[in-house]
Write a structure and sequence with these properties.
Blueprint (H helix, E strand, L loop, with lengths): L12 E5 L3 H12 L3 E5 L5 H19 L10 E3 L3 H5 L4 E4 L5 H14 L5 E4 L6 H4 L9 E6 L8 E6 L5 H13 L3 E4 L9 H17 L5 H9 L2 H5 L4 H7 L5 H9 L17 H15 L4 H18 L14
Parallel strand pairs: 1-2, 1-4, 2-3, 4-5, 5-6, 7-8
Antiparallel strand pairs: 6-7
Helix pairs in contact: 1-2, 10-11, 11-12
Length: 325
């Protein structure tokens, strides 16, 4: 693939193709980060709905901080797909999750976008290998999977297909970081990517419990918001479980609780906890800890839970000794 026309931190204009909930969320995010945005959507009322979405998102974006020069006025609606991408430095596609539509649209974008411009799909599950089949220049096509709403949730998962140029993946990851996103660059394709697979596992187990009369919807939601969800806001499940091992960390936790993988606590089949998996988990937690001791991680976890409880109104505001806030 030809080299991108500019460095990731020099992008000025982003084209957003598809202006529904996800595409519109991307538009709001890119506008808030100070980019010029050109959008295109075939729906006849797309512009009205998109500007309404941006206006609704803007107060929240103002709270978290706008980039210099950020303004909804930097949004343009193009009459055609070709005009939308004609001057783009980057293209974000957010069409409905229909494989044939994705294939056709990405081929159109590849044909229309300037040479070297990276094109990312917001798909929530399709591998790029399955979507880039009709494009003549598949090397610049990749996945940039966001989370709703894209203007507030930082995560974006980046991964290429079999025909994607690794340089395009590297460029896109750097661009998203420059655009204030938290980026996971995946080494290989996986249907549903990482976060959606984890969400889906919890969701399917929840459906099983409701279907079998084992728990109510409220029970399930409360079990997360009043339990592990408080920790997951700032410390993921692996590092959280490592703290369950006390000073022995993940190794002790696996040795102590590993046999429970064979217990009927979920409908999912557990992998075999062999030496290779144990080592990968222990080493991964050591890497995630980044030199912090168990005591330091416990203190961070405890303060994080307090912060989340206070932020969500479940603890009173902190007061000083004199009783004032």
């Amino acid at each position: 693939m030809p080299s991108p026309p500019c460095a990731p931190d020099r992008v000025r204009r982003v084209a957003c193709i598809g202006a529904g909930v996800i595409g519109g969320g991307w538009v709001a995010h890119f506008l808030a980060r100070g980019y010029d945005v050109t959008a295109w959507d075939p729906a006849p009322d797309a512009e009205v709905k998109l500007r309404r979405l941006v206006d609704a998102a803007w107060p929240a974006l103002e709270q978290i901080g706008l980039a210099e020069g950020a303004s909804p006025d930097r949004l343009t609606l193009a009459p055609t797909l070709e005009e939308a991408v004609a001057e783009a430095d980057f293209v974000q596609e957010s069409a409905p999750e229909k494989l044939e539509l994705k294939r056709s649209l990405l081929a159109q974008l590849d044909a229309a976008a300037p040479a070297g411009v990276v094109i990312a799909s917001s798909t929530s599950g399709y591998p790029m290998t399955d979507m880039q089949t009709e494009a003549t220049g598949p090397g610049r096509l990749l996945v940039g999977h966001p989370f709703n709403p894209p203007y507030l949730i930082p995560l974006v998962e980046v991964v290429g297909g079999e025909k994607t140029d690794p340089a395009a993946v590297e460029w896109a990851s750097a661009f998203y970081k420059a655009a204030a996103k938290s980026v996971i660059t995946m080494d290989r394709e996986l249907p549903g990517f990482i976060a959606n697979r984890l969400q889906e596992a919890l969701w399917r187990e929840a459906l099983h419990m409701v279907a079998n009369g084992e728990a109510t919807v409220k029970d399930i939601d409360d079990s997360i918001t009043e339990g592990p969800g408080l920790r997951w806001a700032f410390m993921g499940p692996c590092l959280t479980f490592a703290l369950a091992g006390g000073e022995g960390g993940m190794g002790h936790m696996l040795d102590h609780f590993g046999p429970s993988l064979k217990s009927p606590w979920t409908r999912l089949e557990a992998p075999e906890l062999d030496d290779s998996l144990r080592t990968a988990m222990v080493d991964g937690c050591d890497e995630a800890a980044a030199g912090r001791s168990i005591a330091q991680l416990v203190a961070e976890r405890d303060q994080g839970v307090i912060n989340v409880l206070r932020a969500t109104g479940r603890l009173p505001e902190q007061r000083n000794e004199g009783g004032d806030k």
